[in-house]
Amino acid sequence: MTTIDEAPTAEWRSGPLPNSPAADPSPAGVPALGRQLFHVARPHLLARLDARHTRLTVVSAPAGWGKTTLLASWTHRQRGRAVWVDSGSRAGFWYRLTTAVATGTPIVSGAAATADPADGPAQLAGMLQDTSSPLAIVLDDCNDVASPDALADLAQVVRTSSAPVRLVLACRGTPALPLHRWRMDRQLVTLGEDELAFSVDEAAGLFAGQEVTLPRLAVADLRAQMEGWATGLQLAATALAHRAEPAQAPLDAEAIDLIADYLGAEVLARLDPQVHRILVEASVAERLTAGLLNTLADRVDGAAVLADLQRQGAFIRRCPAPGDWYRLHPMLSRVLYRELSRHDRDRVGRAHGRAGDWHLIQGPPVEALRHLLAAREWERAADVLHRHWPDITIGSRRLDVGPIVTSLPGPDAPPHVVLAMAAERLDACDTASARHLLHLAEADPDAGEPAASIMAAVRLATARLDGQLHRVCCAAAEILAEPAPENSAAGKLRPLALLSLGAAKLHLGQTTEAGQYLGEAQNLARRRDLDHVEIIATSHLAASYAALGHLHDAVRTAREALELASRLGLGQLTDLSWSRLALAEAYFQWDRLDDAWCCTDAALDNSCGDRLIQLSGTILQTRIRVATGRLTEAHEALRAVYHESGTADLPAPARRALALAEAELRLACGDPAAALERLSSWPDAEPLPAQAAVVEGSVLLAEGRPAAASTVVAPYLTRADPGTSLTCRAFAGLVAALAGKATGHRDQVMHGLGVALKVADEEGHRRCFTAGGHAVRALIESVAPAMSAYPPVVAALTATIDPLIAEASGPHLPSYQGAGFAVSGTLVEPLTSRERTMLRYLQGTLSHVEIAAVLCISVNTVKTHVKNIYRKLGAGRRKEAVRLARELRLL
């Protein structure tokens, strides 16, 4: 059992000390959390539950999503301000409720020990009149604990009470309450599956707590298959715990058996047998709509069945796309499909055949292909590929689509059928099987058209999905170099080649060229109604805009991709993570850090193990952590990436981005020497990117070398190179302005600040200014009055930049003291250079052991430096030393 609690301290993990006082007693009836077990920290959810301005909080999700444990953890923290209603029969609900309120809170008049259910609401209302302290009434499994009438009466008592009372409900479906009224009065807070789902980081913590060692990409794969379902991840950890090499073990039969047992007892056993049979038939489909369900189950009430299942919390969700689409949870779908396969193989084929017929009319064609192959209607499947291959062979990478065809139709299978099977495997991101089948299809020397073009498309897509970027560039360039009529098979291959070439150029760091190819691919796909191609091209195009610092274009294009995918019911495409990362980058540069984190989390959660998406998302989250002062978390995240990413075979831009992220972190920790060392980690033959120049300029500022800093960033203050990111230009402008101020060159200050303000005016950049803290604010306030071109931007910046922000919170613009800097206040003796570096690390939350690991020195050396710092500052504690150092302007 894994429980969810507040973040544990080191002392908490090691257990209570022998002479420590006893823990506070648990509130009556609250499930024991078992403090000896591993707890997944979920402070963001606990904070949502702390919203006391609302009267009603509803935590609604299917079984096993952590509702009870979350509410029990939150109730433990309330220290007498919350009561928990025991489970039991509906007939005794009011007795249990009034008893819990009477025994759990200091009621002045006292409560009767017994109460007739009929006068329960009146008695509760009277009890609440006698308390003035905040009180939360927590009901777990509220629809089982109380009847609809009793729940409505309780909600009415809470709604009309003059006491500061709240009602917190947990349920598997929708509670029997008029939630719209509470929502209109802004008295409702809801937590659903999306909020309760484990992120990749939380899933990694769960596996670590169960002593199961998995690479981060494997954790991301499992998290995607479970869609963040806590109990599913727990059961997977249980199955993998006995494996000699769990990192190499997929979600095998043992794990599926454990999950099937749980879902059978907690979900399927609660359903009407007829509905159960309907779901078994429907398990062949990845997504469901009323018409498809009616076709599969031979019914006419599919819409009502789907809506009822969602209201019951039966592991089925309504998709945000138009058309009333629903999705079974991947694990429930897999369990039901296994049940269908065990009964009758012919029944499986018939179900797939019906689904294929429906998708032939309604689309998308790749679903028709998949179902017809599963139904062994080989010729019809090959015909679908023949008619729709440009939109099928793009490679969608949907990890939840398992192999449904495991063998060829015969030893002499026709090449066009084998090619259709290769295309289906490509769509499911099974590139190994796709290459094997493609090799078999290529054995036919007389393939002709369009088979030759289809084979070229499959080769191109497999190379792109496997990260063979240079091979993609060569193959795509060869295709584009050959002239072909637009309506010919070779002409239909052109949008795929443009998309593949643009995506490869983007990941190789050639952003301007990438944008050109991706824009052409988007337009061509739009003209030819190639939905998949258009979505993926648009998503990558958004990422290229974000990389160039064109934030408004990035947000607009990313939203286009997400909206189109949602409208077509293709919201599970992995490549949409590039749109989410583009949104995250824009929000980060706009200094909307919470929004940036949410978008990055969504991108990582839907990455399906893509290494480049995982790397890009982790780097961005590292920058967010640094910006919010969480240096320990940032260090741990980067260390994990270095350990697991296999940097040797990463593209050069990805390796450089990883090195730059560490350099920025080292600089934020006050160690410019280590940051400079990371900047020299790639060969001299490779050009210095603009971001590296900005970081190097910041390092030189921190080392007291403003002239050298100006020289490094000077080439990036002009727009001569269209490939220079506007984000880097803004940072470079501020580095140049700060360096000019240090050297007394007012013209340089004006020019650098003007560059930064122009970017801020055009694209809304704010992070570069916020990262600079009071040094940048002072610069703006002293110089900006003479710059009349940007008064609205200047006013907005001076209003948002906190003058008390320590420069250590900004990775690019560290504090700088010139050669003539004089420290105010008193010091016993000056700090050495190493002690000043150590002082910067003391601002964060790194322990002595972690600081020693970061600086590659012994723990005793760290302790010696810290002791000297305390003595010279006259401090007795870490926080006091940091405070005194800031007063002395040492930080």
Automatic annotation (TrEMBL):
Q: Does the keyword Transcription regulation apply?
A: yes
Superkingdom classification of source: Bacteria
Query: Is Cytoplasm set as a keyword in this record?
Result: no
Keywords attached to this entry: DNA-binding, Transcription, Transcription regulation
- Upper classification of the organism: Bacteria, Bacillati, Actinomycetota, Actinomycetes, Micromonosporales
Region of interest: Disordered: 1-30
Please give the SMART domains that the UniProt record associates with this protein. Answer: HTH_LUXR
Q: What GO MF annotations does this protein's record show?
A: DNA binding
One Pfam family, short name = WHD_MalT
Give the protein's recorded name. LuxR family transcriptional regulator
Instruction: Name the Gene Ontology biological process terms.
Output: regulation of DNA-templated transcription
Using the record's annotation, list all stretches that form the HTH luxR-type domain. 824-889
